Amino acid sequence: MSVDKDNFSFFGKAFQENLCQLILLDRPFADQVKEVLVIEFLELKYLQVFVQKIFDYKEKYKVHPTYDIMTTLLRSGLEDQNETIQKQVRDYFARIQDKEPEGSQFVKETSLDFCKKQKLKEAMLKSVKLLQSSSFDEISKTINDALRLGSSTDFGYDYLVDFEKRFLIKTRNPITTGWDEIDLTCKGGLGAGELGVVIAPTGAGKSMVLVHLGTQALKLGKTVIHYTLELADSVVASRYDSCITGIELSDLYSFKEQIFETVKNLEGKLIVKEYPTKSASTNTIKMHLEKLKMRGIVPELIIVDYGDLLKPISIQREKRQDLETIYEELRGIAQENNCPVWTASQTNRSGLNAEVITMESISEAFNKCFVADFIFSVSRTIEDKTTNSGRIFVAKNRNGPDGIVFPIHMDTSSVKIKVLQSNGESASDIMVKSSKEQEQNLKQKYANFKRKTKTELPDV
User: Which of 47, 172, 201, 395 has its CA 20 to 30 A from that of 57?
Assistant: First the structure.
């Protein structure tokens, strides 16, 4: 971009509208760009008026405005503008309230670069005039002052300037789990920037549960990115077919046309990306997500099946430290992409035939529990598998109660999972009950054995 251009017209209307939205949304960026932005750099009058309102408010009240404050300002503070400009400003503000600015980082960097070059150009022209009458120090100061303008002002959350931000209603935008009972405990599902973990032993259905969670988002029209490090991508996609249509996995080939007619009408988008076990790290996932965004595919739910199979970015001395770091990085991905991330973790041997799986059964790294926002376990004994039953135990919940056990119906033949109403039993109740039942069974077997032995002994 040539510095000879004296406004943003080269970048177009969309760029300028995104820039103005970022000035409202991002207080540190607004402070940074304010030092170098000349209002006239904005080509469109209604955008000039919009940004000037933001800067005037900041100057007068020493705090950054919110959407609610801007609503009031634009409703009653445009009397000095003609009706056409008033309408354009209000229409623009109405448009941006329901959408995120596009290409935020590009817009920030490009606009700052343009404005800083303009300021430097201005300083250089001024310095030429100073050559004959001023000292070198004065000329140097003029150039250096221009170079310092627009430097980063993001020193953190400013207690006074960011006052209004504290009183905004935080929106989690949760995505339902598809289970009313679970949604009630965690305020609607897993929220944006949150990490959810499904704990289960091998063969209990971790991957099935993750497919169920992805399916619920798809039905809502969300874009789901599903990473698989254990199963083939086509196998995962087939499970989605079954979960969406209710057709058993063994019958999918017989109902190909019917399945296509159903899935083609889904408003959501599903991308399944397969990586060999331990070949991908969280950096691999980040790079793949960036490539998707460049193609206009923005993730709204990310599933990693499963976190324990990711490769650590840097090898630690102990495996538990590697796993702890991986789960911290997964939560970082959730925050960076402002969407929920679901993953799974395998239990140790104690969870293989447990009635209820608690966090003590998590394999290798208990510390990965600390970073997760929502954790539930799936336990299915040998008897449960034959009756398509089992239990979900809410082990950790930052947005509601935990320690609750829910009975479930789980038919793996068609990826059908239902959570039933809790009967009020806690994990300890069930484990005590299970222990008593085992003790009773042993006593009964021993009594039967004694009876059988007695009848078989010959009379003397």
Answer: 172
Q: What pLDDT sits at residue 445?
A: 58
Evaluate whether 51 touches 42 at the Cβ level (below 8 Å). Answer: yes
Element spanning 342, H or E: strand 341-346
The tokens describing 454, both together, are: 């007695």
Predicted model pTM: 0.64
Is the Cβ–Cβ distance between 274 and 232 less than 8 Å? yes
Question: CB 354: neighbour CB atoms within 10 A?
Answer: 22
- Find residue 389's DSSP bridge partners: 409
pLDDT of 192 reads: 92
For residue 376, give the 3-state DSSP assignment: strand
From CA 114, how far away is CA 37, in angstroms rounded?
A: 9
Task: Say which residue the tokens 């959408």 belong to.
Answer: 99
Could you tell me how far CA 380 lies from the centroid of its own chain?
Answer: 29
CA–CA separation, 360 and 378 (whole Å):
14
Distance, CA of 4 to CA of 127 (rounded, Å): 18
Does 2 have pLDDT greater than 50? Answer: no
**In this structure, is the dihedral angle defined by the CA atoms of residues 89, 92, 94 and 97, taken in order, positive or negative?**
negative
Q: Tell me how crowded residue 2 is: count the other CB atoms within 10 A of its CB.
A: 7
* Contact present, 408 and 420 (Cβ < 8 Å): yes
Q: How confident is the model at residue 134 (pLDDT cuts 50, 70, 90)?
A: low
Angle (deg, nearest 10), helices 104-130 and 13-25: 90
Could you give the angle at the alpha carbon of 225 between the alpha carbons of 221 and 230, nearest 5°?
135
Which amino acid, one-letter code, is at 419?
V
Report the b/e string of 232-255 with b at 16+ CB within 10 A: eeeebbbbbbbbbbebbbeebeee
Nearest Cα residue to 278 out of 239, 234, 230, 324: 230
In angstroms, the CA 145 to CA 426 distance is 66
CB 115 within 8 A of CB 37: yes
Tokens 């739910």 -> residue: 301
